[in-house]
Amino acid sequence: MKEGYVIDTSGVPNESELQQINKLARRSLSADEVFVFSVVLCDNEIDRDFERFSNQALETMAKLYVGKTGIFDHSMKGRDQVARIFSCQVEKPDGQTTTYGEPYVRVRARAYMPRTEKNKELITEIDAGIKKEVSVGCSVAHTLCSVCGADRKQEPCEHQKGRSYHRKGKDLICHHILDGAADAYEWSFVAVPAQRGAGVVKAFSNQEKGGAAMDYDSVMKSLTTGEAVTLSAEQAEQLHSYLQNLQQIAKHGQDHYEQLLKDTVRMAGLVQPDMKGELMMKMLRGLDYAEVCQVNKAFTGQMDRLFPPVSQIEAPSQKEVAPVADFDKFLI
Ligand SMILES: [Zn+2]
Questions:
Q1: Which of 85, 162, 242, 288 is most deeply packed, by most CB within 10 A?
Q2: Do 1 and 51 contact (CB within 8 A), yes or no?
Q3: Ramachandran region, residue 183 (left: φ > 0; alpha: ψ -120 to 50; beta: rest)
């Protein structure tokens, strides 16, 4: 399962492939107008997340991926829909077995892209083997424990992915079997090497719950599972406005904090005239918000003592001034 990869760049479609392509294309394309290649989308091998697809899930995915669009880096901006899968099949390459001893099975897709000026560079890169890796997004109904068979989405079990368990005289590495493929999303060329090893990009968990309103908890939960996530355009938009909103709130908080620092320094100039403003600011910046609030409160107290509110009609002689000794306990 890992990420998928381009395996064949023969380039020119045969007659029956051209028919399949033209079922999906907006206008009838001729063989020399399209570039075709093969991609292995997923397989039944255990990936680095200790997960694998069941053979049944692969069968379903082969059907779900027909017509799906391939893009760059799961980019949701610009929607550069560069390639499209026109046929997909489950195949068993001769004699290959998985690490757990079963026949190796993979989903192999045939994809096409129009030979346009815009796609020229990408076609060259795919042809040259530079754009080799792809990642695919999908959602599954069941995540089964390979040791006890429990559906981890319904019932937790004590087995942990990647750990070894002794069963029926054998040591088994626990992995999760992704079963009941429910939906297939876009697939994309992975241009950034850092994304390699991310494995098959699982669907953003929010999607599986029918795209419920995105809140802080669900976002954080999805982003901290230690697994790669992919977002639909709609979810990316939701996340974007959510972050924008947070940014707005953070900006208000920052403005308030800066004002608090300024006010505190201004008061310090009055109650601690010997201390330079810059030094006070430096000290305050070393404190956290709650501590700055405390200092501000202490200075406010001193200000009230030093400069008590004076009534307009009050005689100056009645003005109370706190004794100097009292200030000592406020000195920093
Ligand atoms: Zn288990």
A1: 85
A2: yes
A3: beta
How many angstroms does the Cα of residue 159 sit away from the middle of ligand 1? Answer: 4
- Rounded to the nearest angstrom, the distance between the alpha carbon of 200 and the centre of ligand 1 is 22
At 111 the three-state DSSP class reads strand
The CA distance from 245 to 239, in Å, is: 10
The Å distance, Cα 184 to ligand 1 centre, comes to 26
Cα(233)–Cα(169) distance, integer angstroms: 48
The alpha carbon of 247 and the centre of ligand 1 are apart by a number of angstroms equal to 42
Boundaries of every domain in the chain: 4-210, 243-330
Angle at 72 between CA 123 and CA 239, to 5 degrees: 170
> 203 alpha carbon to ligand 1 midpoint, in Å?
23
- What is the whole-number distance in angstroms between the Cα of residue 177 and the centre of ligand 1? 11
Q: Say if strands 229-230 and 170-173 run parallel, antiparallel, or are unpaired.
A: unpaired
What CA–CA distances, in Å, run from 219 to 225, 229, 236?
11, 11, 11
Instruction: Yes or no: say if 91 and 105 are a contact pair by the CB < 8 Å rule.
Output: yes
111-168 residue pLDDT tens: 998 898 888 887 888 887 777 788 888 889 999 999 999 999 888 899 998 888 988 8
Q: Which residue has the higher pLDDT, 208 or 233?
A: 233
> How far, in Å, from the CA of 127 to the mean position of ligand 1?
44
196 CA distance to ligand 1 middle (Å): 28
SS3 at position 247: helix
Token digits of residue 40 = 């292995």
**What's the gap in Å between 135 CA and the centre of ligand 1?**
28
- pLDDT tens, position by position, 54-110: 999 999 999 999 999 887 654 545 455 578 999 999 999 888 999 888 999 999 999
pLDDT for 285 equals: 92
Find out whether 228 and 196 touch, Cβ atoms under 8 Å: no
Cβ count within 10 A of residue 218: 15
